[in-house]
């Protein structure tokens, strides 16, 4: 099924509407079982945190299709994050990563971009995306600091892990039907360093952002009164999921730790047989053989631990962060609804300018509906991603473990073969399950 | 077969009334008999069948809890007739007494060791408690192994005391003490002294001593590291059990992933549980190594006995040489070396001819005795070296065979562990695929 994602135009960038969007806007969703959006909904995009921008519900038509296979053959943007480099200035030392983009999308002027970005830039992008789409699920960024301390920041492993996570972050956004159309995203991928700095300075000023924060706090204190059942269900799920995934994260890290300690002991074990072989005549060869087997098993163990650290640990960690993201998204949705409810109450109880308030309430109502639909749509998408990611990670781990045991088996069987002079009397033992 | 060779006919070796020459002769005869395969084990089935706890008063009249082991014996050909075995109970200290007796009575034999009195070199899961059933069980096996070793030894198997240990309940202890073996035991001081001062021990024994020390060091280290490895492996497997629990809980909140997770969880539980059997099997391997670790003591004991014998020979020979020189000095009237006699003669004057004559006679007598002694010691030493070396070669062959088999069984265990791992993770993989 080809992907016919239609452009979503952010209200803040009215001058970048692609010319041909009108033709695509009214395409109806043919995919029945993925009917996340009401076909004739006319929705305003994003939140109105930016007080200076007015949007009317009818100005935009937003039609999106969420596909099961987001990375189908029609993937039109490829992003890689690599090549970490250290930069030293008078004030600070930091790392930048190369972000390479190859795309055929028309909203990009070129087909290829190469820029350098630092962690701060990724943080900025995430913030902008969450600002513009507060109830969409943005894939988490790797954490700012490692708990152990700042010293770890420039450690090779830490940088490698971070790089991979940043790579995943950008690709997830690229795969997201709505988020990937964000202008901020485009600028992030294409602008040169100084251009980005300038661009960052645009947008709502400090005071208006303060205002938003105050409102958000007020809303969360107020609380929501009539949360729809489905969101309560999602919230309960997220709570449980968060607990389970945190558990799994801890268990897996513990396994890595135990496995590493096992490896350390094993490294001492083999050489003891070699030492022993020095005192023996008849047994020397055999003892050296056993030492060799243990040594080879050591190598396999090392590889297996590496695989676990590279494959399962980061994914579980990512989803621990995801759980927090989900909680935040649910909170933001609640806040939007709370604001709406509050205004409604005011309408009912206080003496105010009813017409102006009514208009505001209508806008808020639309916002609530849009927010709910966005979340619902993204929720299904997130669940599928989660399932795919975790299934793949666990499967890969199990596969590697099978491989590990198979390799060790081969090592010992080879040794045994070299030892047996009378196969007949040994076969019985071998057949014992 | 039991009727043919009753205990009285067989157990000549244990009789300490025999002179050393006769003893040696009997040993030679017995050794010839090995070739005919009359080791006790072939005639008699011996097992340490059970262990039980008893309470009783100990030497300081206090109540104590101790374990007794049931020794069952049965003539081999009676198997088919379904005859119940004879049995008696013995405690560990009696085994120790038996072994000490054998050590003293057959100093040229590398006597099999007993299993540990107290649990040492265990990995943490195994209790170091002597009363722990697992420890008791392993000790039972070790004691049975000891009896088999003795019963299949060409020399030891014919010992009467050993036979009675296996078959007669009452008064065995008194019998052992009556042999007077404790008096024959060489004092530790004597042995250490000899070890330091011996001049020409047989090079092979010196080499053997070094080998024993090396083997002890390396096996101790090996057993320690193995125990640590086992500890760690246990940890790895058991933590996976947590996956089982969490997967199960997680599956409750998932729709499509639920089944896959739930069944994967079961496999993780199985994986965690499998380590118990794996490590128990490995304990047998460790016990085999431990036996040879303890064997090094027996090897060293034989070497010490050689050093002692050799030392005594050297002392006697030295004494003889001394006396010869004294005679020479007396006869020729010259004092070649500085001696007390030389001094006294200088100070107090020479002695009379009668005095000299008397002294000479005494010396002659002593010389004759000395020569006899040297001859005797020489023979003793030679015999010892010969018989000991035969047993050492026997021991070496046994050790190589046993350890070779142990290493093979270790490889088999590793293979089994890998196969189990493959199975579990393949199953888990299938389950994850269904998520």
TrEMBL record, chain A:
The keyword Coiled coil applies. One of its GO terms (molecular function) is phosphatidylinositol binding. Residues 75-196 form the PX domain. GO terms for biological process: autophagy of mitochondrion; endocytic recycling; piecemeal microautophagy of the nucleus; protein transport; reticulophagy. Residues 347-374 form a coiled coil. InterPro entries: AH/BAR_dom_sf (IPR027267), PX_dom (IPR001683), PX_dom_sf (IPR036871), Vps5_C (IPR015404). PROSITE patterns: PX. Keywords: Coiled coil, Protein transport, Transport. GO terms for cellular component: early endosome; phagophore assembly site. Belongs to the sorting nexin family. This is Sorting nexin-7 isoform X2.
From TrEMBL, chain B:
It holds the Pfam family PX. GO terms for cellular component: early endosome membrane; plasma membrane; SNARE complex. GO terms for molecular function: phosphatidylinositol-3-phosphate binding. SMART domains: PX (SM00312). Residues 47-172 form the PX domain. Belongs to the sorting nexin family. This is Sorting nexin-4-like isoform X2.
């Amino acid at each position: 099924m080809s992907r016919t994602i239609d452009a979503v135009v952010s209200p803040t960038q009215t001058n970048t509407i692609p010319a041909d969007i009108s033709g695509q806007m009214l395409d109806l969703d043919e995919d029945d079982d993925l009917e996340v959006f009401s076909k004739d909904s006319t929705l305003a995009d994003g939140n109105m945190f930016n007080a200076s921008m007015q949007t009317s519900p009818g100005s935009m038509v937003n039609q999106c299709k969420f596909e099961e296979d987001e990375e189908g053959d029609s993937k039109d943007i490829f992003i890689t994050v690599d090549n970490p480099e250290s930069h030293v200035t008078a004030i600070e030392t930091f790392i930048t990563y190369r972000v390479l983009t190859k795309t055929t999308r028309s909203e990009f002027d070129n087909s290829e971009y190469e820029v350098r970005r630092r962690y701060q830039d990724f943080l900025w992008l995430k913030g902008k995306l969450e600002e513009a789409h507060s109830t969409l699920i943005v894939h988490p960024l790797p954490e700012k600091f490692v708990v152990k301390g700042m010293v770890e920041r420039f450690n090779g492993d830490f940088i490698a892990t971070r790089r991979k996570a940043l790579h995943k972050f950008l690709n997830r956004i690229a795969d997201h039907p709505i988020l990937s159309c964000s202008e901020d995203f485009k600028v992030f991928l294409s602008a040169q360093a100084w251009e980005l700095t300038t661009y960052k300075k645009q947008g709502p000023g400090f005071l208006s952002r303060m205002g938003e924060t105050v409102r958000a706090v007020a809303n969360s204190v107020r609380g929501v009164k009539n949360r729809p059942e489905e969101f309560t269900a999602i919230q309960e799920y997220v709570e449980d999921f968060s607990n389970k995934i945190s558990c799994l994260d801890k268990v897996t890290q513990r396994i890595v730790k135990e496995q590493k300690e096992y490896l350390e002991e094993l490294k001492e074990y083999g050489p003891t047989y070699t030492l022993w072989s020095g005192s023996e005549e008849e047994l020397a060869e055999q003892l050296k053989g056993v030492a060799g087997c243990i040594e080879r098993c050591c190598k396999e163990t090392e590889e297996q631990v590496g695989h676990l650290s590279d494959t399962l640990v980061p994914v579980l960690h990512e989803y621990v962060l995801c759980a927090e993201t989900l909680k935040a998204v649910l909170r933001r949705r609640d806040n939007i609804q709370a604001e709406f409810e509050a205004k409604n109450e005011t309408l009912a109880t206080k003496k105010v300018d009813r017409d102006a308030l009514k208009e505001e309430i209508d806008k808020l109502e639309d916002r609530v509906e849009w927010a709910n639909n966005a979340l619902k749509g993204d929720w299904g998408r997130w669940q599928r991603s989660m399932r795919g990611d975790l299934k793949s990670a666990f499967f890969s781990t199990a596969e590697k473990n099978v491989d590990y045991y198979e390799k060790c088996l081969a090592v010992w069987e080879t040794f045994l073969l070299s030892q047996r002079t009378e196969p007949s009397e040994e076969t019985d033992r071998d057949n014992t399950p | 077969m039991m009727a043919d060779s009753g205990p009285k006919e067989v157990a000549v070796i244990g009789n300490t009334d025999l002179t050393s020459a006769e003893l040696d002769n009997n040993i030679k005869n017995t050794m010839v008999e090995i070739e005919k395969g009359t080791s006790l084990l072939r005639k008699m089935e011996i097992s340490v069948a059970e262990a039980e706890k008893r309470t009783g008063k100990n030497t300081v009249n206090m109540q104590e809890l101790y374990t007794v082991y049931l020794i069952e014996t049965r003539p081999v050909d009676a198997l088919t007739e379904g005859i119940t075995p004879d049995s008696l109970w013995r405690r560990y200290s009696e085994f120790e007494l038996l072994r000490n007796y054998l050590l003293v009575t057959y100093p040229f034999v590398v006597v099999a060791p007993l299993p540990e009195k107290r649990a040492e070199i265990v990995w943490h899961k195994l209790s170091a408690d002597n009363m722990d059933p697992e420890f008791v069980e392993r000790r039972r096996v070790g004691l049975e192994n000891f009896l088999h070793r003795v019963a299949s030894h060409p020399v030891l198997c014919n010992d009467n005391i050993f036979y009675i240990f296996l078959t007669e309940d009452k008064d065995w202890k008194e019998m052992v003490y009556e042999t007077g073996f404790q008096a024959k035991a060489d004092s530790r001081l004597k042995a250490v002294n000899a070890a330091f001062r011996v001049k020409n021990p047989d090079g092979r024994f010196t080499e053997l001593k070094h080998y024993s020390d090396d083997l002890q060091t390396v096996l101790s280290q090996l057993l320690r590291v193995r125990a640590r490895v086992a500890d760690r492996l246990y940890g790895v497997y058991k933590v996976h059990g947590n996956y089982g629990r969490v997967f199960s809980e997680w599956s409750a909140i998932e729709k499509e992933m639920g089944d896959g997770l739930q069944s994967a969880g079961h496999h993780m539980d199985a994986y965690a549980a499998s380590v118990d059997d794996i490590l128990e099997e490995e304990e047998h391997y460790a016990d085999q190594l431990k036996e040879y670790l303890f064997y090094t003591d027996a090897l060293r004991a034989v070497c010490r006995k050689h050093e002692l014998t050799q030392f005594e020979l050297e002392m006697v020979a030295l004494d003889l040489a001394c006396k010869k020189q004294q005679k020479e000095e007396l006869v020729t009237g010259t004092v070649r070396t500085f001696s007390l006699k030389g001094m006294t003669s200088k100070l107090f004057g020479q002695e009379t001819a009668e005095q000299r004559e008397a002294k000479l006679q005494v010396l002659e007598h002593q010389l004759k005795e000395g020569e006899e002694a040297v001859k005797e010691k020489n023979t003793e030493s030679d015999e010892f070296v010969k018989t000991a070396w035969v047993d050492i070669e026997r021991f070496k062959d046994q050790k190589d065979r046993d350890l070779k088999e142990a290493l093979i069984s270790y490889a088999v265990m590793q293979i089994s562990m890998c196969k189990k791992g493959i199975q579990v993770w393949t199953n888990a993989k299938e389950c994850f695929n269904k998520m």
